[in-house]
Amino acid sequence: MQCLAATHSFVEYFMTGAYVDEINRTNRFGMQGQLAEIVAELIAEMKGTTKASIAPRAFRDAIWRFKPQFRGHDQQDAQEFLGYLLDGLHEDLNLVKKRVPVPQVTKEREEEIERLPEIVVADQEWKVYRDRNDSVVCDFFDGQLRNKMECHVCGKTSTTFNAFQSLSLPIPTPSRQHPTITLHDCINEFLREETLEGENAWNCPRCRRPQPTSKCLSLTRLPQSIIIHLKRFSSFDAVSEKAETPVVFPLTGLEMGDLLPPAVEGVELNLDHDEATCYRLYGVVNHHRDSHGGLDSGHYTAMVRNDQGNWFDIGDDEVRQISEKKVMGAARSAYMLWYESYS
After folding, report:
1. Which residues are within 8 A (CB) of 330 and not within 5 positions of it... i.e. 6 or more apart?
2. What is the per-residue burial (b if ≥16 Cβ within 10 Å, else e) of 215-236?
3. Is the pTM of this model over 0.70?
4. What is d(CA 267, CA 145) in angstroms, rounded to the nearest whole number?
């Protein structure tokens, strides 16, 4: 919530009361505005109070009512909770009162998707998505990924597009030749082409059987605010492990526009296509493992940048101003990175 409350345009939307007229009271997938209202109250209290701290009990109790699996005082995964919160806010504030059915993908459409330039198809698929999803959450946090599969035997390809609210990036293993892991290394690992075979082989519709297949992800739309989740936790045989590999991340100048597909001259698009898109950091969610306990006994803290460009470290019972060097020192504990675009 501290990082969400540092997302300036998002906070302004609630502080000005603009959300009131956009609450969707009839959406069966949402909470009929109850979640949006409780978040608005919490943001107003966080931004308007002169107290050193507040206790968001009403927000906690509302979350417990809406999502019982978060009930209790056990540690919950911050990324999982954020996904629920943003999805719930989106449904409460979705301006689409009656969703049109998702168009059936015909054989002709499949061929068109594979034939047309990537940016053109991405634009068409984005319009289909936004015709059903139109909220402030989409405006600020939604991006788009393309997933392309190619059979190694017959060359058949299949391409799909999906929206995302955060990017979950793997952390590469350091090596003697590459001892320092950067955020760009994580992005490149996420986008690296991989081969699916054996139990993971793709069931090729042309071969009509599982075949070794190439899988390639690419970014086709970038959001105003991009939330990056570093996949530090993994489970093997019911045993959880945390990767505490340091990941060096930039405070500013994170260039992402060069990852977008090339524009097509003379083609008008629905979505913005800015190959010069850069991002600067404004929030970090850290996970700290307690020295005396396991993964379920750690705790989270946040680092946020305010309107004046000053950074603050926020714990359970203390807030203190910190330097940019201190923010950069979170390379080992950073779990979620919040970036905003700028020109």
Report:
1. 284, 286, 303
2. eeebbbbbbbbbbbbbebeeee
3. yes
4. 21
